[in-house]
Structure to design on (273 residues):
């Protein structure tokens, strides 16, 4: 939760940016370049929770920023940030974003947080983000994601909870992925490569069965299947040595299946309530 001190700090940053903007608007270029030198040298900047509908235009000149946060505003676009080609972190969750600028200029980005917006598509230019390790797109309006996301060779965390996904791309490889959140969509069991996957959340989807090749998920530690229509557990689940937590609330699983599973995986905690 953001403190009153942080909001006060962010408000001061905004005031200084507005003074810089005014100087540029009045043609006082030299004055603008000298205003608030500490701010203009900063590598990290937050304008979160300030009720902004647009970002201050002087940010176009802050191409040296490596981390930028603008949580909890009412922004509909991020075009002003297009020149920030040194960004490693961009946080813009809890806004009203409907689209993103071309992503190719953010090739240094390692963490991208865009949850709780109104995005209904994701550009295939996401394949340019080859340094990306953490991507949060939860609770948007995505009906599909581009197959290009499967080329992100460093991605370890992906959150797509609360969208409108029916299927994932066929070539959804993501060999480095260890955490995948897909809750509250419209998915059947997706075709994914489980090589490194440790956490998988498929709760509240349209899943009626667990695939018989579930034993390929050898690194899986936490599996959440709450709120589906699963009625049996395949024997292949007995071959998941790393599994320690299984959430099955709201599924009609017979007790005999659970007892058999626990005999093979005594370390497992099964959550039914």
């Amino acid at each position: 939760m953001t403190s009153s001190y942080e909001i006060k700090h962010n408000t001061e940053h905004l005031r200084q940016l507005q003074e810089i903007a005014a100087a540029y608007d009045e043609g006082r270029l030299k004055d603008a370049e000298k205003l608030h030198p500490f701010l203009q040298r900063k590598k990290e900047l937050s304008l979160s929770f300030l009720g902004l509908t647009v970002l201050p235009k002087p940010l176009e000149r802050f191409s040296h920023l490596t981390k930028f946060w603008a949580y909890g505003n009412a922004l509909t676009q991020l075009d002003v940030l297009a020149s920030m080609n040194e960004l490693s972190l961009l946080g813009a969750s809890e806004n009203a974003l409907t689209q993103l600028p071309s992503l190719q200029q953010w090739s240094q980005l390692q963490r991208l947080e865009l949850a709780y917006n109104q995005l209904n598509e994701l550009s295939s230019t996401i394949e340019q983000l080859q340094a990306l390790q953490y991507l949060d797109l939860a609770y948007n309006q995505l009906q599909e994601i581009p197959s290009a996301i499967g080329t992100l060779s460093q991605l370890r965390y992906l959150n797509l909870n609360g969208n409108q996904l029916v299927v994932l791309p066929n070539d959804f490889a993501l060999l480095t992925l260890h955490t995948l959140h897909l809750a509250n969509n419209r998915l059947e069991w997706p075709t994914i490569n489980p090589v490194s996957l440790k956490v998988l959340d498929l709760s509240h989807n349209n899943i009626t069965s667990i695939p018989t090749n579930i034993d390929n998920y050898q690194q899986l530690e936490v599996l959440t299947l709450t709120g589906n229509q699963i009625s049996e557990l395949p024997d292949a689940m007995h071959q998941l040595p790393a599994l320690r937590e299984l959430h099955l609330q709201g599924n009609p699983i017979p007790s005999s299946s659970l007892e058999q599973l626990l005999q093979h995986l005594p370390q497992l905690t099964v959550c039914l309530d």
About this structure: The helical segments are 4-25, 29-34, 37-41, 255-264.
